[in-house]
């Protein structure tokens, strides 16, 4: 299996920093540090990936039940609001997902760490995606 996630609408070279204060995107996928006026970084993509990991277990977009407004921004930034974990999700998956969306960008894994995690899971005999992660329509 090969998964590709992209959104080229706001793409730029990785070595070209964004201007502080510029905020682009959809609120649930934007890191707290960017919402607070900081620049986008590689760690920002990892945060967004953590939100996508949650969506893979829930089958719905993150925070689809609340308005995407200033209150949501405050809750994400000041109260560390994240989507509620879906029951039945494998512990290792939850731990990685939470590391990806950690409030502290320094605590988020690198993309290489993510690759290592997924390769390990793929090769572990006990990890079966169809049985271990609650995929919508696969319950």
From TrEMBL:
GO: which molecular function terms? ATP binding; protein kinase activity
Q: Which InterPro entries match?
A: Kinase-like_dom_sf, Prot_kinase_dom, Ser-Thr/Tyr_kinase_cat_dom, Ser_Thr_protein_kinase
Q: One matching Pfam family, short form?
A: PK_Tyr_Ser-Thr
Residues of the signal sequence?
A: none
Q: Which source organism?
A: Rhizophagus irregularis (strain DAOM 197198w)
Q: What GO cellular-component annotations does this UniProt entry give? A: cytoplasm
Instruction: Using the record's annotation, list all stretches that form the Protein kinase domain.
Output: 1-133
Q: What is this protein called?
A: Tpk1p
On the tree of life, the source organism's domain of life is Eukaryota
PANTHER family linked to this entry: SERINE-THREONINE PROTEIN KINASE
- Listed Gene3D superfamilies: Transferase(Phosphotransferase) domain 1
Q: Name one GO biological process term.
A: signal transduction
